[in-house]
From TrEMBL, chains A, B:
Keywords: Isoprene biosynthesis, Magnesium, Metal-binding, Transferase. It comes from Dysosmobacter segnis. GO terms for molecular function: (2E,6E)-farnesyl diphosphate synthase activity; metal ion binding. This is Farnesyl diphosphate synthase. GO terms for cellular component: cytoplasm. InterPro entries: Isoprenoid_synthase_dom_sf, Polyprenyl_synt, Polyprenyl_synt_CS, Prenyl_diphosphate_synthase.
Amino acid sequence: MEKTAFDARYQEYLAAIEDYLNSLFAEKPHWADLYEAMRYSVLSGGKRLRPVMTLEFARLCGLDWHKAVPVGCALELVHTYSLIHDDLPCMDDDDLRRGKPTNHKVYGETLAVLAGDALQPAAYRLILTAPGLTDAQRADCALILANASGPDGMVAGQVLDTLHHPSAQDELTEVHHLKTGAMIAGACMLGVGAAGGSEAARKAAEDYGYQLGLAFQIRDDMLDVIGNADEFGKPIGSDKDEGKVTYVDLLGLDDCGKLVHELTEQAVSAVSDLDRDGFLTALAESLTERTK
Amino acid sequence: MEKTAFDARYQEYLAAIEDYLNSLFAEKPHWADLYEAMRYSVLSGGKRLRPVMTLEFARLCGLDWHKAVPVGCALELVHTYSLIHDDLPCMDDDDLRRGKPTNHKVYGETLAVLAGDALQPAAYRLILTAPGLTDAQRADCALILANASGPDGMVAGQVLDTLHHPSAQDELTEVHHLKTGAMIAGACMLGVGAAGGSEAARKAAEDYGYQLGLAFQIRDDMLDVIGNADEFGKPIGSDKDEGKVTYVDLLGLDDCGKLVHELTEQAVSAVSDLDRDGFLTALAESLTERTK
């Protein structure tokens, strides 16, 4: 796919996603402080990689992709809650996220915990009231999200990462598979689920997401060494400061770069039957050289 | 309903609930510590009031109540996560819950936050894979849970309670409505939703739950003054120690007692058409004199 065509579609998806997210929690109930804390993190930018994947898979499976926006954004809310909680003092204790003060630095720990807590049911509400989907599609999507983010997905990965000090390569791979892979694979599968796509498409989405999730995380480890703090949005070297063993420690930068490319090829190969005009391929390849 | 018949049915429900909860997170994955922390709080007893209500409303709406067990227990998981997070140092900072050390006292803050986080998707997973329900019933139940526990339900109440220092009676009522009422009403509505019951039954369940939720919370305020710490499972006077204004401060014990009875009568009246053999009435009345 031509870069201009890729960029145009990405921007079209991104605009729809930002518009939709911006419409959430805009009212002012008595507890407007909760809404404000939720909005602060939900609207703090980011690439919106996950919902973009949801929209493209939905489109490829024959759905008007606009109908998948609430579903993709639901996963983005869950991703956002996980970032808020990951940054807490009792977790990674980070002050900066995407170049801005973390949620608890702005709103305090109490509200940060609660904003994260509220984003989870808010996400399911978006899926379960998504216009134009059947009950079966809604139920399917809600289950995909629950599996991706639950005690055998993202949270399991976070437990291993934070408390188990993974150091061998298979341990790191398991952490990334659960913590990052499950949610990226979930985002892809949500598009298939929203569209009522085939089992083959679901399997392709899952494989694409998991391979890309691992590549994404290894690239993250690399950026923690070679990145630019302003662009990356957080301090360089924080993994080392936190005593974390990364892929770069185990393989070195060069082999990490090669592995990112290999995983990206595998991801692309998984969707070869589905990726008719090459958006998923271009997306995967764009991530190999990302700097933020 | 005769007390022995009431007790027998309550015990039958309770046994099914405990059996089901006991079957959860029993495997030993690499992240068995997460499972253990989740189980610690999920299995720490309690009256299981909420899932009992789910089962009775499901039965009254014509469902084999056994099919509603996963749905009722899902709400109990969400209730449990809220207790774990409420007890955290950055919330109420409590050391004891139901007479046992709180989750973070046993497992540390990091794992307590994550165990709470994981219980939410785990709850949706139970609903969305509940055997014997249609997709429409599953989607309906998942939405009821999301509404009850979300940023316009339980978490909103927790924000007001923890951060807004409610002191006038209408402020306290709003807190209890959101923090306690929404989840008890949600438990009742889940039974109707699982059974595919009528709109009238759903409205009755909602009213019953909200009235009873408020009565429950006022009784809680009373027990914080007149209770027995061993029976109540937490220190007496903790509301005062935390500087919280309660219904007892505003109305005095006698008028609180009267209000509990009035609200209970209203709850009973809301289900007069539905409560064929009087279980809901007996349940409501049993709560007015509870000591734990």
